[in-house]
Specification:
Keywords: Detoxification, Transferase. It is an enzyme of class 2 (transferase). There is one protein chain. This protein is an alpha+beta fold. The chain has two domains: 6-79, Glutaredoxin; 91-207, Glutathione S-transferase Yfyf (Class Pi), Chain A, domain 2. 55% of the residues lie in helices and 7% in strands. The protein contains ten helices and four strands. Strands 2-1-3-4 form a four-stranded mixed β-sheet. α4 (91-101) packs parallel to α7 (155-161) and α8 (164-174) packs across α10 (207-230). The chain is globular, with a radius of gyration of 18 Å. 31% of the residues are buried.
C-alpha cells in the first residue's frame, strides 16, 4: 500500500463517487469519506481541490488532488497495483473497456433531467437501445464469467454498476423496465452480482432515498435553468 493519507471528497447519491469508493474497497485501501451536500453551496475544500469543474469526486492523496471518476479509478489501479487489477492488461481489452465505460451515462441523465417530456422520451428510447448493446458487450467482455472484468469487478463494472441504483430510480419513476429477463438476461444476473459484491454493498444507495434526492435535485436544476433563461 502506498504511503500517505487518502480521502474521498464525494456525495452518497453520486454514481461517480461510488466508482471511486468501490475501487478503493477492491484494493483494500483505507480512506476517509468526506460528504459534500449536492443541494447546498459548494464547500471551500471542493472549490480548492477541483477549481476547474467544482464537482465531486475528488481523491485527496496526501497533498495531491485527483479529479474525474474514471481518471481517479485509473490512478488507484496504477498506484495500488496489487491484485485485483481493475483495468485489463491487454492493450486492446483496455481500450475496449475505456470505450464502454464512457458510453452510457449521458442518455440516463437526460431521462432524469431533460427539460421537456419529449426530451425525456427521446432519451429513454436511446437508453433502451443502449442496454441491448451493453448486453452484447457484456457477453463478449465477460467471456462467460460473472463480471465485465471476468472473475473480478473491473473498469466497465465500476462505470456501469455505479449507475444501477439510478436505473432503479428511473424504472420507479417511469414504470419502464430497463433491465429485463427477456431482453437483457445477462445484465440482470450481472446487476445482482455487482450490487451484492463485498466491495459494493456498503456504498450502494437505497432506491427510495435516492429517488427522493433525485426529485429534489431535478427541481433545483430546473429552477436554475429557469433563472438563467429569464436573466
Amino acid at each position: 500500500m502506498a504511503d500517505g493519507n487518502v480521502k474521498v471528497l464525494g456525495a452518497w447519491p453520486s454514481p461517480f463517487v461510488m466508482r471511486v469508493r468501490v475501487a478503493l474497497h477492491l484494493k483494500s485501501v483505507d480512506y476517509d469519506n468526506i460528504e459534500e451536500n449536492l443541494l447546498e453551496a459548494k464547500s471551500e475544500l471542493l472549490l480548492k481541490s477541483n477549481p476547474l469543474h467544482k464537482k465531486v469526486p475528488v481523491l485527496i492523496h496526501g497533498d495531491k488532488f485527483v479529479c474525474e471518476s474514471l481518471i481517479i479509478v485509473q490512478y488507484i489501479d496504477e498506484l495500488w497495483c496489487s491484485a485485483p487489477s481493475i483495468l485489463p492488461s491487454d492493450p486492446y481489452d483496455r481500450a475496449e473497456s475505456r470505450f464502454w465505460a464512457a458510453y452510457f451515462f449521458p442518455a440516463l441523465r437526460r431521462v432524469l433531467l431533460g427539460p421537456t417530456e419529449e426530451d425525456q422520451k427521446a432519451a429513454m428510447a436511446e437508453v433502451l437501445e443502449g442496454v441491448v448493446l451493453l448486453e452484447e458487450a457484456f457477453k463478449r467482455l465477460s467471456k462467460g464469467k460473472a463480471f465485465f472484468g471476468g472473475d473480478n469487478v473491473g473498469y466497465v463494472d465500476l462505470a456501469a454498476g455505479s449507475l444501477l441504483a439510478w436505473i432503479q430510480v428511473i424504472e420507479k419513476f417511469t414504470e419502464t423496465k430497463l433491465l429485463s429477463e427477456d431482453k437483457t438476461p445477462s445484465l440482470v444476473t450481472w446487476a445482482d452480482c455487482f450490487s451484492s459484491h463485498a466491495a459494493v454493498k456498503d456504498v450502494f444507495p437505497d432506491t427510495d432515498k435516492l429517488a427522493d434526492f433525485g426529485m429534489k435535485f431535478r427541481a433545483e436544476i430546473l429552477k436554475a435553468a429557469a433563472a438563467t433563461t429569464t436573466n
